Amino acid sequence: MAQAAITLHEDKESLRGKVSEAEWDARVELAAAFRICYARGWNSSTANHMTSRVPDQPDTFLMNASVYAWDEITASNLLKLDHDCNVLGDTDLKPRPAGLNFHSALQREKPEIGCTLHLHPIDGVVVSALEEGLMFYDQGSCGVYGQVTYHDFEGLAQEADEAPRILADLGDRHAMIMRNHGLLTVGRTVPEALAYMDRLAHACKVQSQVLAANATPRRLSQETLEWTARQMAERAGNKPIGDVEFQACVRRLVREDPSFMQ
């Protein structure tokens, strides 16, 4: 039996100094977010995507190519695309069709959104397959109460006519459970999308473990959920959430492996 050839991708030449300062900063931030997601055990493959709008070119966005695992992503090997799904720059690399389909629609149709994040963490997939959907058992889960919507599975999300339905189902919320599929969050900033994913993934993990325990689960009351969610919203004000935690994670990355900044 013939053995499969191993493909080694050479380090891409650094784009620093070849793109605007705003774009470079956005690239470094997004590359850091991919490494943070990998470190949290959310994705160890080349699948799934995260995007970030380029601040000084809001009709373009950054996205990962399909050939890189999330711990391999750097500021320079991120792809830059326009809202018509064209990859800009000198590269033959592309994202996966399904991810490009709905991520590009979110970036195009929701100018208030700066970042989109889609994952298949196992506990999120488990909850996505439950008829009851997400249930709330602890304080941390309250951070996504009232923010979660649902989208039914239609097969690989690469068909153009599914993207508008994903947009409609998301509405003005920050988190979505894609049934029998995975999780999606969006944010005004990269840290905010990451923070909502952290809260959603946490809630799914708690639910998965609580339901697996040989005991009677105790769900939080709706009154308690609403009050705690309101407390959290008041603490955040109108500012994007997640920045302090994100900066702490970036500092850890810089100490342990600064290659994401290349």
The CATH top-level class label: Alpha Beta
Helix content bin: 25-40%
Count of all domains: 1
The number of helices is 7
- Which structural category fits the helices and strands? alpha+beta
Q: In CATH, what is the homologous superfamily? A: Class II aldolase/adducin N-terminal domain
Broad shape: globular
The arrangement of helices and strands along the chain is: HEEEEHEHEHEEHHH
CATH fold assignment: L-fuculose-1-phosphate Aldolase
The count of DSSP E runs of length 2 or more, i.e. the number of strands, is 8
N-C termini distance: 39 Å
Kindly report the average pLDDT value: 94
The percentage of residues in β strands lies in 5-15%
- Report Rg: 19 Å
Q: How do the strands of the widest beta sheet line up side by side?
A: 4-3-2-1-5-8-7-6
Largest sheet report: 8 strands, mixed
Q: In the CATH classification, which architecture applies?
A: 3-Layer(aba) Sandwich
Uncertain runs are none
Protein architecture, described:
The chain is an alpha+beta fold. The protein has one domain (21-261): Class II aldolase/adducin N-terminal domain (L-fuculose-1-phosphate Aldolase, 3-Layer(aba) Sandwich), CATH 3.40.225. Helices cover 38% and strands 14% of the residues. The chain has helices at residues 21-39, 97-109, 122-128, 163-170, 190-212, 222-236, 243-256, and strands at 50-54, 57-63, 79-82, 87-88, 115-119, 148-151, 175-178, 182-187. The protein has an 8-stranded mixed sheet with strand order 4-3-2-1-5-8-7-6, with helices on both faces. Helix 1 (21-39) crosses helix 7, helix 2 crosses helix 4 (163-170) and helix 3 crosses helix 5 (190-212). The model has no long low-confidence stretch (mean pLDDT 94).
